[in-house]
Design goal:
By secondary structure, this protein is of the alpha/beta class. The protein is 41% helix and 19% strand. The strands form 2 sheets. Strands 3, 4, 5, 6, 7, 8, 9 and 10 form an 8-stranded mixed sheet that branches.
Length: 303
């Protein structure tokens, strides 16, 4: 049994396909298939049901895959500990970031992190929260930057900072003349939300109260906060935006931003990791870089 065989087995389990797994592992499909076949012969069991599309683990395969994940975590942790003792931070960090954070936060820390830790390969994927949780469970991600309170218990949250909510109001909306709004002032029929699956949508519904929301005369399934804001610009509606988006709003539209007169109108930005995560040194370096970079480049309270 080898580390390579365990890595190939996990790749097929994650992808549900030998061909996709071979692409991810940068190896030919026959070579990958042979390695997994050799592992099955050594253990004397069938680990993958190849008759199913997508390929799925057998019952014993699920047990072996769980142990393989633990073994690979331990293996990677050994390399990280040695690198740390040698005064080096190196390795690969697969990072998920939710869409309402990625375009605003990633540009602030990416350059600094790359400069400080040239031996770390940072792979960033923009994903919604349910997909991040699934990817972390299947060991496709090492960590994620997301909104706090949205993870299951098996994922721990390391707090970064608070991110206040603001209203973004169309000039055609009756509330546009106000400098600040109460939550009670927002009518559901005027409020446009992001698509289901985005935690910002759920947070806004919780903030405003689900009972006060109404069906719109059209359906918008958008994963882009910028698209939602452009819809507000073209209609008489409003939406809720995070503070980190404010610097990216054109000067001509800044008057459309209204403070919310409610102390709890914010979200916590966190780094999410599995409870058994191995790349502690790299994640700590990332967290510290984010805090320092954001602190230097933002004048907003809490950032």
């Amino acid at each position: 049994m080898t580390i390579i065989q365990l890595e190939y087995l996990l790749a097929v389990a994650n992808c549900g396909s030998f061909s996709k797994a071979s692409e991810i592992c940068f190896v030919t499909q026959p070579s990958l298939s042979m390695q997994i076949k050799n592992l099955e012969e050594e253990l004397g069991v069938t680990l993958l049901d190849r008759s199913k599309k997508p390929v799925v683990p057998t019952q014993v395969g699920l047990l072996v895959i769980e142990k393989a994940r633990e073994a690979l975590l331990a293996y990677n942790n050994v390399k990280e500990c040695v690198a740390e003792l040698q005064g080096s931070i190196s390795g690969k960090l697969r990072l998920g970031v939710i869409p309402t954070i990625a375009p605003y936060l990633v540009p602030q820390f990416l350059h600094d992190f790359a400069d400080r830790y040239p031996n770390v390969e940072l792979e960033i994927r923009e994903m919604i929260t349910p997909d991040i949780v699934k990817a972390m469970d299947s060991d496709e991600l090492d960590a994620a930057i997301m909104a706090g309170g949205t993870c299951p218990e098996r994922i721990t949250e390391q707090e970064l900072f608070d991110d206040r909510f603001y209203a973004y109001v169309s000039p055609e909306n009756p509330l546009s003349a106000r400098t600040s709004l109460r939550i009670e002032d927002i009518y559901g029929k005027d409020l446009i939300l992001m698509a289901e699956g985005h935690c910002l949508r759920n947070q806004v519904i919780e903030l405003c109260g689900a009972g006060r929301l109404h069906e719109l005369p059209y359906t918008l399934q958008s994963g882009s906060l910028e698209t939602v804001m452009r819809i507000v610009d073209a209609t008489s509606m409003l939406t809720i935006i995070p503070e980190m988006a404010l610097p990216y709003i054109p000067e001509a539209n800044r008057s459309r931003v209204k403070m919310l007169a409610k102390g709890a109108a914010s979200r916590k930005i966190v780094v999410g990791v599995r409870r058994t995560y191995a790349k502690e040194t790299i994640v700590t370096a990332l967290r510290n870089t984010i805090l320092e970079s954001v602190g230097k480049k933002s004048g907003h309270k809490g950032l």
